[in-house]
Write a structure and sequence with these properties.
The chain is mainly β and 120 residues long. The protein has no helices and eleven strands.
């Protein structure tokens, strides 16, 4: 069992940066591919980024490429998402997830989410 808690959300002006963090409990965190998803008001949840268990493979949605960077620290059971050049359309609840399937839709474990709001 893995429990995930996100932090770092907030209100930022367009063009600014935010760093989201997710802390996991459970000894098996380092086994899993982990990642971030987001859900904007009135929209379905969508994939943002993922990172493999050993950090050698990362994957990004087209909307995140070149602006966001995902990283993890298995010794600390954390995964981070650095978001730069933020846009109003990045406004959403951001969810940390572990045990991602290859379809960019499903995951075994989910956090509760953290709100990110980008003002224009």
């Amino acid at each position: 069992q893995v429990q995930l808690v996100e932090s770092g959300g907030g209100l930022v002006q367009a063009g600014g940066s935010l760093r989201l963090s997710c802390t996991a409990s459970g000894r098996t965190f380092s086994w899993y591919r982990v990642g971030w998803f987001r859900q904007a008001p009135g929209k379905e949840r969508e994939f943002v980024a993922s990172i493999s268990a050993s950090s050698d493979v990362t994957d990004y949605a087209d909307s995140a490429k070149g602006r966001f960077a995902i990283s993890r620290d298995n010794a600390k059971n954390t995964v981070a998402l650095l978001m730069n050049s933020l846009k109003p359309e990045d406004t959403a609840i951001y969810y940390c997830a572990a045990g991602l399937a290859n379809d960019r839709l499903r995951a075994a474990y989910w956090g509760q989410g953290t709100q990110v709001t980008i003002s224009s």
